[in-house]
Amino acid sequence: MSDPLERAVPIFKLYGETQHWPTPDLLHCELIRERSGPHNWHIPPHRHADLMHLLYIRRGEGELHLEGVGHPIAGPNVLVVPTMVIHGFDFERDTDGYAITLSRPLIGELSERLDAQGQAFFQPAHFPLSDQPEAATIDSLVTQLHAEYRQPAAGREPILHALIQALAVLVARRAERRRIHQLPHHDKGHTHLVRYQALVEQHYREQPSIASLAARLGITGTYLNTLCQRLAGASAQQLLHERVMLEAKRLLTYTRMTVSQVADALGFTEPAYFTRFFKRHTGLSPKAFRQRQA
């Protein structure tokens, strides 16, 4: 059975928003004051099915709410909020810091590259940085990442990846020395969702059926849809389509592949079918989307 509290907590697609991931990038970076300031420095409890946060508090104080429990925080500090964890924030007015949001494909890539250290991204925690050897480097990396994210230039994607990977290593090192909060136990439904998302990541280019993916999990398509709706706020098909759309946007933005080549790379039998699929999800044709990004 599902937890009544869990059902009552909204599932956000981004930091305090319910709309879909708005960018072809695998990460999103913004100043904390940009999002929290207009809301009286308060972000209500919510969760993400496929996103995680790395927050860097340079100066200021506040409270991090994890699974209904408040934890005082003060800068300099790094906060790790994994997927599926119910969380909220109350920041002191004029808190100086950054909120970095990572999409599931990037989370998987980083955790794989970091091997055992990657477990730091699956445990909610906050790490004070005062008198820590990583403090100055973390500050510099986050500042550079925000600048690159805000002012696109040639080579933007690889440098963003390099910066976030370096930041991830430093956060993982800090996590090795001190873990404050352990990731709460998840039920079997959460496990099925995580495994489904991993299968989507592996096979989305093959246009798999939901029935075939559910069979790999040892459950029915109907039960998989019920789990996805309850835990992720979307059907299994919608989660699959969201991943296909993210990759389509990335290929149209960061490569010179033709629309036909993008369609073929994503498993569409006909470019016209891909164009209809893309327009149904964005309101734009692939060509118009590419022109707008340029």
UniProtKB/TrEMBL annotation:
GO terms for molecular function: DNA-binding transcription factor activity; sequence-specific DNA binding. Residues 194-292 form the HTH araC/xylS-type domain. The keyword Transcription applies. Keywords: Activator, DNA-binding, Transcription, Transcription regulation. It holds the Pfam family HTH_18. SUPFAM superfamilies: Homeodomain-like, Regulatory protein AraC. The keyword Metal-binding does not apply. It comes from the Bacteria. SMART domains: HTH_ARAC. This is AraC family transcriptional regulator. It comes from Halomonas urumqiensis. The lineage of its organism: Bacteria, Pseudomonadati, Pseudomonadota, Gammaproteobacteria, Oceanospirillales.
